[in-house]
Write a structure and sequence with these properties.
Multidrug-efflux Transporter 1 Regulator Bmrr, Chain A; alpha+beta
Length: 162
């Protein structure tokens, strides 16, 4: 597992969201996979006012910690061009990803439905024995759109830390 510490400025992300928790996501009622389907069905990458270079899988509005409820948002950075009103018919929400220090975890190359759960397991294990503390202010998966192949990809996960 490759881990790097970076500082990132705040960015505004607009997309579609669901409220969930890790226990729900581990079972058949998980909401995140359906959210991905909606994201692509609505063509959010082609909407004006959004930067289609990266897809953010943002985890925010944490109830407590890894065991609590959180909001997951799939979206893109806003560009400041166009109007968010154009996206209202998709029931989109806009959220600020906070400026923060982040630990960046990079997955192995492989199918997205394999590498993402694997890297999250590694992240949870990492934080059981490290000196850094998670802030639970906003964490995100970052997917580069150009050349994205869900059967053979690498994902970076940014975890906000103190």
């Amino acid at each position: 597992m490759n881990v790097e510490r970076v500082n990132r400025p705040s960015v505004q992300v607009c997309g579609i969201a669901e409220r969930t928790n890790n226990q729900v996501e581990a079972g058949p009622e998980g909401k995140i996979s359906g959210l991905w389907g909606q994201f692509f069905q609505h063509g959010l990458l082609q909407q004006p006012g959004l930067n289609p270079e990266f897809i953010y899988g943002l985890y925010t509005e944490y109830e407590s910690d890894v065991n609590g409820e959180y909001t997951v948002l799939l979206g893109c950075e806003t560009t400041g061009e166009g109007s968010s009103d154009q996206l209202n018919h998709f029931k989109t929400v806009s959220v600020s990803v906070p400026a923060s220090d982040y630990l960046v975890f990079t997955s192995n190359l492989g199918p997205v439905d394999t590498v993402v759960p694997e890297i999250w397991q590694e992240i949870w294990s990492y934080f059981q024995e490290c000196k850094e503390s998670r802030t639970y202010t906003g964490d995100f998966e970052l997917y580069k759109v150009a050349g994205f192949d869900p059967s053979n990809t690498v994902v970076q996960i940014y975890i906000a830390v103190k």
